[in-house]
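2024-03-11 09:14:02 INFO worker-7 job=invfold-0412 stage=load source=structure_tokens
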């Protein structure tokens, strides 16, 4: 049995991933600002999903996105392995397996971000966020390299991916730098001042920069995964079959 969508193949999977992530982020941001739990224009993504009810939507949405993201990584790995079979001993099996592992690790990190809220478990949340963001940026560069060197994609196809990967890397570096700087300049003693910054708390400009870069980085990565849709269109997923156990046959 094959799973695909008429005229779309499996391209609906990266589209679904983008829709889940985008809707989750917008819903939690709207709920957090509507309930007055964050400073309206400049909030970190994790801060918008800290308290209920938005934390429930945040966790559920990111768990679903992590699951779909892992499936996308698995399918792209299968596509790349199949299209490089002709290379024989020169097939980059190890490279593709590392790429697949990074994709899975990034998905696990995304699930951690959703399940461990920033306000209560900051360390675990931060580890999950860094795993996801750094992993996705590295995944983008490595996948683009495979497309260019081993899959022989045309320049017009892999060049946009490279541009997105480079932009994502830039936003990642600026985000980390601005966030660390904002933490060192924090002067307020409010409990939530680390993540819900006000202009008089110290380091507000750096915090604002970090927030903008984080949101831009995430949507850049969403755009990158959307570039998988044309590739997935030509493929379908074969589901495993349930058959009678050989042990049962022997006993019969």
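2024-03-11 09:14:09 INFO worker-7 stage=emit residues=252
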């Amino acid at each position: 049995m094959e799973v695909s969508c008429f005229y779309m193949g499996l391209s609906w999977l990266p589209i679904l991933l983008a829709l889940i992530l985008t809707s989750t982020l917008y819903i939690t941001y709207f709920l957090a600002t509507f309930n007055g739990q964050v400073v309206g224009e400049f909030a970190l993504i994790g801060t918008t999903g800290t308290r209920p009810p938005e934390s429930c939507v945040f966790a559920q949405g990111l768990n679903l996105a992590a699951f779909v993201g892992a499936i996308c990584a698995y399918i792209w790995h299968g596509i790349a392995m199949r299209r490089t079979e002709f290379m024989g001993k020169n097939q980059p099996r190890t490279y593709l397996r590392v790429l697949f592992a990074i994709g899975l690790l990034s998905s696990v990190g995304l699930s951690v971000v959703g399940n461990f809220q920033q306000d209560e478990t900051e360390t675990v949340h931060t580890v999950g966020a860094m795993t996801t963001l750094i992993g996705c940026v590295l995944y983008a560069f490595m996948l683009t390299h495979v497309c260019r060197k081993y899959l022989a994609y045309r320049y017009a196809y892999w060049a946009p991916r490279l541009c997105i990967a480079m932009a994502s890397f830039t936003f990642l570096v600026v985000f980390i730098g601005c966030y660390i700087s904002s933490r060192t300049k924090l002067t307020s003693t409010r409990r939530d001042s680390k993540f819900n910054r006000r202009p008089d708390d110290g380091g507000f400009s750096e915090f604002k920069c970090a927030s903008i870069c984080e949101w831009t980085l995430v949507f850049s990565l969403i755009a990158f995964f959307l570039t998988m849709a044309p590739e997935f269109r030509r493929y379908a997923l074969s589901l495993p079959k349930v058959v009678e156990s050989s042990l049962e046959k022997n006993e019969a």
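2024-03-11 09:14:09 INFO worker-7 stage=report msg="Residues 54-83 form the longest helix (30 residues)."
2024-03-11 09:14:10 INFO worker-7 job finished
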